[in-house]
Design brief:
Elements: H1 3-6, E1 9-16, H2 20-32, E2 38-42, E3 46-56, E4 60-69, H3 70-76, E5 80-84, E6 87-91, E7 96-99, E8 104-112, E9 116-118, E10 128-130, H4 134-144, E11 149-153, H5 157-165, E12 169-174, H6 187-194, E13 251-256, E14 261-266, H7 267-273, E15 296-300, E16 305-308, E17 310-313, E18 317-319, E19 338-340, E20 351-353, E21 358-360
Parallel strand pairs: 1-2, 1-8, 2-5, 8-20, 10-17, 11-12, 11-17, 12-13, 19-21
Antiparallel strand pairs: 3-4, 6-7, 7-8, 9-18, 14-15, 15-16
Length: about 375
């Protein structure tokens, strides 16, 4: 064992992850164990927390999600020390964690709350963007500001919010379902909401939010390493964000139903394929031509091909188990999450997991399901 490892600081409890699960875990530990030191490791300078919690009966709760700077949590809970860094390596035998700034920390109990990361079509393609945290939203805004058309793939909450808020840009929305936003509403309600997506619908001011928010005085810092993500976006993530392209006015949306992405083609691949890209469907024939030159082309399973400036992949997330499972010591569920029992314990001694990074191993109740 190296001298650095021997000198590492000990914490009875270490929580990794600055999202709702991680912060709630750290705050609860602070309440139950006020004399114990707790370390919260967050890759983002902002953390997510629960506020205005209301209990309705035994199982029903209502609460708000707020963003807080790291310093606020430390003021509220003096026995919590918060580090803005990320875990690089885990030594389960020695109960130690190595952070990206090459410092070791020893734990008595560890809770992994690193959330999920976006499922991205063609990982590494510069024209495909996955949205999960504040920094990826800022990158999306920057790209959108010069875009004429985007293709959004996915039918969940983030995809729906993007489609609704994007202005002055053609949007092709590709979904695998027969109705929009199927995760949240039935087909009848979807038809009702579909009318509000038309370009003629007025984009109204939603009024003042009663939810407290914290922002950074400076722009969001770069990720500590390229593959690290901050906490998942909260419910008000679109508020105050400019989402405007450089073509047309208002909303211009076309939905492709019951499709998935068959493949992505570059300009050269599109030319050699001999296929024809579709024109954006519009009533007034003023849409951009399918013959226009686009950085990337999306071929759908129904055979339709659309050119666009970039693709937003919003098809859900996968559990972010890296780098904890480098040595394959954890039991991994079929959906990729760390398998936990009904006490949130993993198969590794003194290691727990909570939130999107884990998967329930017990038999679920009839109408219960885990949603990421």
């Amino acid at each position: 064992m190296s001298g650095e490892q021997l000198q590492c600081e000990y914490y009875p409890f270490i929580v990794v992850g600055g999202g709702i699960a991680g912060v709630t875990c750290a705050e609860t530990l602070s309440l139950l164990c006020p004399e114990e030191k707790i370390l919260l490791i967050s890759a983002s300078p902002l953390i997510k927390a629960v506020s205005n919690l209301r209990q309705y009966g035994r199982t029903l709760q209502q609460f708000d999600v707020v963003e807080k700077p790291l310093s606020v949590l430390q003021l509220d809970c003096p026995n919590i020390h918060v580090l803005n860094t990320a875990v690089k390596e885990m030594d389960q035998e020695e109960h130690k964690l190595l952070t990206v700034d090459e410092k070791w920390y020893r734990y008595g109990k560890l809770c992994i709350c690193t959330g999920g990361k976006p499922k991205v079509l063609m990982e590494g393609n510069k024209h495909v963007l996955g949205i999960r945290d504040t920094e990826s939203v800022q990158e999306f805004q920057e790209r959108l500001s010069s875009a004429r058309r985007v293709v959004i793939v996915g039918n969940g909450g983030i995809a729906t919010e993007l489609v609704y808020h994007i202005k002055n840009c053609e949007v092709v929305w590709a979904i695998k379902d027969a109705s929009i936003t199927k995760t949240f509403v039935d087909a009848g309600a979807a038809e009702f909401f579909l009318s509000s997506l038309s370009s003629s619908a007025e984009m109204k001011d939603e009024g003042v939010s009663k939810r407290m928010k914290y922002t950074l005085e400076k722009p969001m810092i770069s990720r500590l390493t390229p593959d690290l993500l901050g906490g998942a976006l909260g419910p008000d993530w679109t508020e105050g964000r400019e989402m405007q392209g450089q073509y047309g006015e208002g909303r211009s949306i076309h939905v492709e139903y019951k499709v998935e992405v068959s493949r992505l083609l570059s300009q050269e691949e599109m030319k050699s394929s001999g296929k024809q890209a579709k024109k954006f469907p519009k009533n007034d024939e003023t849409g951009l031509s399918g013959e226009a030159s686009w950085p990337i082309y999306v071929e759908l399973t129904n055979g339709h091909i659309y050119g666009c400036d970039f693709v937003v992949s919003a098809t859900g997330v996968i559990p972010n188990v890296y780098p904890f499972n480098k040595n394959k010591q954890f039991v991994i569920s079929s959906d990729g999450g760390l398998s936990v029992n009904d006490h949130m314990m993993t198969c590794v001694q003194d290691v727990y997991a909570a939130g999107d990074v884990c998967s329930a191993s017990w038999e679920p109740a009839l109408h219960w399901l885990q949603v990421r």
